[in-house]
Write a structure and sequence with these properties.
It is built from 19 helices and twelve strands. The protein is α+β, with helices and mostly antiparallel strands. The strands form four sheets. It has a five-stranded mixed sheet. It has a three-stranded antiparallel sheet with strand order 4-12-9. Strands 6-7 form a two-stranded antiparallel sheet. The radius of gyration is 25 Å and the shape is globular. The structure holds protoporphyrin IX containing FE (HEM). Its main location: membrane.
Length: about 475
């Protein structure tokens, strides 16, 4: 009866030793990934989860996310890590960032985390973020409807009418939570521009679903009922169905019903572009509409920054009241020439971009080994381009956490393009940049010329690493006499 246990002891010991050796080898491989050169310094964290938990830990200032700040301090402006199962190199070095922007289609390609790709259906033939002809098309259709020609001929007036209407509604409430308020405003208006959406006539509340989606898409990707990620995936399903139905309905509508909008153009182009299908078009509407909500974070933060800096509001108001005085009819709409001469307003907008960092980093995947500054980033790795580091670098911007629009006074356009890159760079640079500046300028014009306003509650900010506003920023508005 004793025999089995005498026999099993050395076997068990051997198995245990093999498991330990195997695990040690795997951990060693995890910590020292293969590379045909020198990897940037850094740590790959724990096997599988890497340093994901550290990435999403919140910082309670407008400064760089603590994850990046701590590591830049420890390793320098380029370091390696692992996040959600991916080997990643983070760069906060402006020279390397520009190099990476310009490598698009050569040694790197646009890439999203797997969980984000799932939300935006970025796979197979409906991948709207692909390169080549698809990328060219994405840019051209977006610029056609949101670019400078459209702004001058149509959108400038449309934005003014819409912003006026929204402020009138806001002033009828005791207060408005600005993040939700600006997101609803942006999604409703941009959906109107793109496909004639009218929230009062639609069965689906598109802005509400997009807000739920925006709230959950950067949360920890655990798909369990009740989690933000789960709610986000449910909202995504509703949106995909709504866009599909919309595309079908418009395709069946008569030519006379055409509005000449984004959706009409995409459906017309189906005849000429091989990659365009109804599913692709509905995915395109979804992606561009979601991207257009990026202005909300900057507008929301703007209220906090203006409320804390009355001298900025004073100079801003003076600039806009001068326009009113110079007009024959003070009630006439803003002209393109007036927009172009809003000097201080533009400094305020630059400063809000610099501090809001609506997209604190951009993601790329290497298609070949990338050699830069003595390091090698292996093929198949992800690169996180931390453009926000440029905006918060004390060597580039003195007292970087101060809201100081006057700092832009002595900069020419070239130096601004080198020190402020909220819209990224290279061929993937934001196609909504002009539209964003015009929208914010008109929003500010309406705010300071027509309304008195007060922050009544909230205003805490955090970064994890996306900018968040705690319980929000609540503002009350009343029309000026
Ligand atoms: C504050 C507002 C905004 C910010 C900070 C912002 C930022 C960015 C950034 C950084 C990129 C480059 C992404 C990358 O390289 O990975 C980008 C791309 C893009 N953005 Fe924006 N964006 C804003 C508003 C908008 C708006 C209002 C629209 C639509 C009207 C828009 C449409 C797009 C599109 C279509 C792209 C893809 C461009 C391409 O791949 O060539 N964005 N945006």
């Amino acid at each position: 009866m004793e025999l089995p246990s005498v026999m099993s002891t050395p076997v068990t010991g051997l198995v245990a030793a093999l498991v330990v050796i195997g695990l040690t080898y795997l951990v060693h491989r995890w910590r020292n990934p293969k590379c045909n050169g020198v990897l940037p310094p850094g740590s790959m964290g724990f096997p599988l989860i890497g340093e994901t938990l550290q990435l999403i830990a919140s910082g309670y200032t407008l400064d760089l996310p603590p994850f990046i700040k701590k590591r830049v301090h420890k390793y320098g402006p380029i370091f390696r890590t692992s996040l959600v199962g991916r080997s990643i190199v983070v760069t906060a070095d402006p020279e390397i960032n520009s190099f990476i922007y310009n490598q698009e289609g050569r040694t790197v390609e646009l890439w999203y985390l797997d969980s984000i790709s799932k939300v935006f259906k970025q796979d197979g033939e409906v991948k709207t973020t692909a390169g080549g002809a698809i990328h060219k098309y994405l840019r051209s259709i977006t610029l056609n409807h949101f670019g400078s020609e459209s702004l001058k001929s149509k959108l400038l007036a449309d934005i003014q009418r819409y912003v006026d209407k929204v402020f009138t509604q806001w002033s009828n409430h005791p207060s408005v939570e600005m993040q939700r308020g600006t997101l609803t405003m942006l999604y409703d208006f941009n959906a109107y521009i793109m496909f004639g959406y009218d929230p009062e006539k639609s069965n689906e509340n598109i802005s509400e679903s997009l807000i739920t989606l925006a709230d959950g898409f950067m949360s920890f990707p655990v798909n369990v009922p009740g989690t933000k990620y789960n709610k986000c995936l449910k909202a995504q399903k509703r949106l995909v169905n709504t866009f599909k139905a919309l595309v079908k309905e418009r395709r069946q509508a008569s030519v006379a019903a055409a509005r000449g909008d984004f959706l009409d153009q995409a459906l017309r182009d189906i005849e000429n572009e091989q990659f365009l299908t109804e599913e692709f078009v509905s995915n395109l509407l979804f992606g561009v509409l979601f991207a257009s909500g990026s202005i909300s974070g900057s507008l929301t933060l703007m209220f906090k920054l203006l409320a804390e800096n009355p001298s900025v509001v004073k100079e801003l108001t003076a600039e806009h009241e001068t326009f009113l005085k110079q007009r024959k009819d003070p009630k006439s709409p803003i002209t393109w020439e007036e927009y172009k001469s809003m000097t201080f307003t533009l400094y305020v907008i630059y400063e809000v971009f610099r501090l809001s960092n609506a997209m604190p980093f951009l993601l790329r995947r290497t298609t070949k080994d990338v050699n830069i500054k003595g390091y090698t980033i292996p093929a198949g790795w992800t690169i996180m381009v931390a453009n926000s580091a440029l905006h918060l670098n004390p060597q580039t911007h003195k007292d970087p956490l101060d809201f100081n629009p006057w700092r832009w006074k002595d900069h020419d356009q070239y130096s601004i393009s080198k020190t402020l890159q909220p819209f990224g760079g290279g061929t993937r640079q934001c196609a909504g940049a002009d539209y964003t500046r015009v929208f914010m300028a008109i929003f500010l014009h309406t705010l300071v010329t027509k309304y008195s306003w007060k922050k009544v509650k909230g205003g805490e900010v955090s970064r994890s690493p996306i900018l968040k506003f705690g319980d929000g920023i609540h503002v009350s508005f009343s029309a000026k006499a």
